[in-house]
Design brief:
The chain is mainly beta and 378 residues long. The chain is built from 6 helices and 16 strands.
């Protein structure tokens, strides 16, 4: 030490000793067991297997599919498994409710549940479907398919499917019990004619303020305030079949069904029927009407009517189809209508021309209803 000079503090701090990577200092808690499912003690017992035995790594858990919901409380409400299929060829949307898991029991302890579906925006009862009730389990299995008729590509682009897992109201003795959980699926994510399965966490019900302008509306229940305008514009749609019969020498008009009709009665439903009018009539029978379907917004008629005449004469006429709500003792309420002719536009004109252009070929097509009664000139 005597032969060496003293190193100042400044020179000592400037020396690069290259200590290498810094390792974390072990804590005393590393040597004691933890009571957490993901933690492992640092000290392990010796391996009883002989040396040279290959060690197999534990399988890594697969990540769960990303849920649609963004709520931290959604995992406590359970999950719902379902499949969606948009059948573009038949204009139908199929929703198959498979099962629910881990449902949170209500205060009464009962777990008798069903799945309720709605299309938004729109009137609630016009698109409301539900499964049967499965009783006495927190993991109900339905395996039931709910079908929406008249579902078009335009609907898929702008509508959302709302699914709720609800408790059976008969057991709770109240009709407006809140759902156990709900979820919403934007239908623009669906690929036509391709099924898609979901396993999604349920969320709590989204409550929104109802607009004051709708307080006196009859039978209307809207979920979102921003959906008011679209809901009031939609009057429903009708499925018509047209076929020119060469054997009978006239036009066969089939009224098959209606879907998502606007509710006109105080109970939230309508008693719909359909009127047909071929204009001008020229003294021949040109007015028909179907039977009345009670308390429904998705009636099925399957009734057919016949208009005699050559194709050239029928091509110059207009077929007016109107949907009405039957009221006993008062005037019937107009729900919506559509006219088919060679002077109409879009699919209405195309449907009319293709039918009269080919004989003995039945053409079916969904037509949206107009809320304003059509005025026909002589």
């Amino acid at each position: 030490m005597a032969g060496r000079g003293r190193v100042s503090m400044q020179e000592h701090m400037a020396i690069d000793v290259s200590p290498g990577p810094i390792r974390p200092i072990r804590l005393i808690s590393h040597y004691f067991p933890h009571f957490y499912p993901t933690a492992e003690p640092a000290l392990r017992p010796p391996d009883p297997r002989p040396p040279g035995t290959p060690v197999r790594s534990a399988p890594q858990p697969q990540p769960d599919p990303e849920p649609e919901g963004d709520s931290d409380d959604s995992t406590t409400l359970g999950t719902l498994e379902f499949t969606l299929l948009f059948d573009a060829d038949n204009s139908t949307l199929h929703c198959t409710a498979h099962r629910a898991k881990g449902l949170k029991p209500p205060a009464s302890g009962s777990v008798d549940t069903f799945v309720k579906a709605n299309l938004l925006p729109g009137a609630s009862k016009a698109s409301q479907l539900r499964t049967r009730t499965v009783r006495g389990t927190r993991g109900p299995v339905w395996e039931e398919t709910l079908t929406y008729h008249g579902f078009t590509l335009q609907d898929a682009r702008r509508k959302t499917l709302r699914l709720c897992v609800c408790e059976d109201p008969w057991l709770r003795r109240r009709r407006r019990a809140p759902p156990l959980g709900e979820l919403r699926v934007p239908l623009r994510k669906l690929v036509p004619n391709r099924a898609r399965s979901f396993d999604v966490c349920l969320e709590r019900r989204r409550l929104t303020k109802r607009p004051k302008s709708l307080d006196t509306a009859r039978g209307m229940s809207l979920y979102e305030e921003v959906e008011v305008e679209a809901a009031w514009e939609e009057r429903g749609r009708v499925l018509l079949s047209l076929c020119y019969s060469s054997r009978r020498g006239g036009l066969l008009v089939g009224v098959l069904r209606c879907a998502h009709l606007a509710p006109m009665d105080a109970n939230g439903y309508s008693d719909p029927f359909v009127r047909l009018f071929l204009h001008p009539n020229a003294g021949k029978k040109s007015k028909y009407k179907t039977s009345v379907r009670r308390k429904t917004l998705n009636p099925e008629f399957n009734e057919e009517f016949f208009y005699a005449g050559p194709r050239e004469e029928l091509a110059q006429k207009t077929l007016l189809v109107s949907v009405w709500d039957y009221d006993l003792g008062t005037a019937d309420d107009f729900i919506g209508g559509v006219q088919l002719s060679s002077r109409a536009g879009g699919e209405r004109q195309q449907h009319w021309r293709e039918c009269l252009g080919r004989s003995d070929r039945r053409l079916e097509l969904w037509h949206p209803l107009d809320g304003t009664p059509l005025q026909l000139s002589d």
